[in-house]
Write a structure and sequence with these properties.
about 85% helix, single chain, mainly alpha
Length: about 90
């Protein structure tokens, strides 16, 4: 089984599709089967997930999403304080 080809195929299908990326992060075996039509041996899963994550830079994606949530919470908190005059 060519792991690099699997990684490359997944990256091309996941690129720019945040819904698929979310599914990949929550259930990598399931999305690999759905997208590529293969049952990946669980012993290879870690290598594939690491390869796809590094190529898609999912670490930065997760950090970016967390940062946006924090900014939105700060904005909401400011509005609530404004309502009560504090």
């Amino acid at each position: 089984m060519d792991i690099q080809k699997i990684i490359s195929d997944l990256v091309s299908k996941l690129t720019g599709n945040n819904d698929l990326i979310a599914k990949f992060t929550s259930n990598p075996l399931g999305i690999i089967k759905d997208l590529l039509g293969i049952d990946l041996d669980p012993s290879l899963l870690d290598e594939v997930v690491k390869g796809v994550s590094s190529k898609l830079d999912l670490g930065n994606l997760a950090g970016g999403l967390a940062g946006n949530v924090g900014k939105n919470a700060e904005g909401l908190l400011g509005k609530v304080k404004g309502i009560f005059g504090k």
